[in-house]
Amino acid sequence: MTDPRIPATELATRRLDLLPLQVEHADEMAGVLSDPALHTFIGGAPEPPDALRARYHRMVTGSPDPAVSWCNWVLRLRDETCLAGTVQATIGPSPDGRQAEIAWVVGTRWQGRGLAKEAAMALTAWLERQPIDVVVAHVHPDHEASAAVATACGLTPTDRTQDGEIRWERTLGSGESG
């Protein structure tokens, strides 16, 4: 039987390189993610480099469930040759078919430039070429910037919520488009 996991591959946009996550990214990313304001809507607190390294090690190792793929990227801003954020997709079976749950975060210093939208749209375009039926994101009802990113990716809000966040979704049609 073939492994149903889908590996993250390098992607590029006009301004960004989306690089598959590596443990070595943790030190720089700890700085990118160090602003407590980033956690206003998602909860938690910034992690020090050693904790982030341990988390990245678990993420790179992959899901213990062979039916689930953890696809994670860091965003390298080419003009500044620095990391500026992350995007991710957790891909696996769901009642709606094969589902990709996506998320994004851009460090405070780089916000307001459309980088989250650019990266999430590249991720969504990549997902369109995969065997995926539905793309899902969970967005806090007060997080207008993330709602704008979800909209740009073609997702629409539903009446379903999870942990106080609105479920946004888009049907792709089994990866046959694109």
Would you write up a description of this structure?
There is one protein chain. The protein has about 180 residues and is of the alpha+beta class. It contains four helices and eight strands; from the N terminus they run ββααβββαβαββ. It has one domain (about 10-170): 3-Layer(aba) Sandwich (Aminopeptidase), CATH 3.40.630. It has helices at about 25-30, 50-60, 115-130, 145-150, and strands spanning about 10, 15-20, 70-75, 80-95, 95-105, 135-140, 155-160, 165-170. Helix 1 (about 25-30) packs across helix 2 (about 50-60) and helix 3 runs parallel beside helix 4. The chain is globular, with a radius of gyration of 16 Å.
| Low-pLDDT runs | none
Query: What's the CATH C level?
Result: Alpha Beta
Main sheet strand line-up: 1-2-3-4-5-6-8-7
Straight-line distance between termini: 26 Å
Please give the radius of gyration in angstroms: 16 Å
Helix content: 10-25%
Question: How many structural domains in the coordinates?
Answer: 1
Give me the count of strands.
8
Per CATH, the superfamily is Gcn5-related N-acetyltransferase (GNAT)
Task: Count up the helices.
Answer: 4
What does the average pLDDT come to? 93
- Regarding quaternary structure, what we see is single chain
Per CATH, the architecture is 3-Layer(aba) Sandwich
List SSEs in N-to-C order: EEHHEEEHEHEE
Fold-level CATH name: Aminopeptidase
The fraction of residues in strands falls at 25-35%
Principal-axes shape call: globular
Main sheet summary: 8 strands, mixed
Q: Specify the structural class.
A: alpha+beta
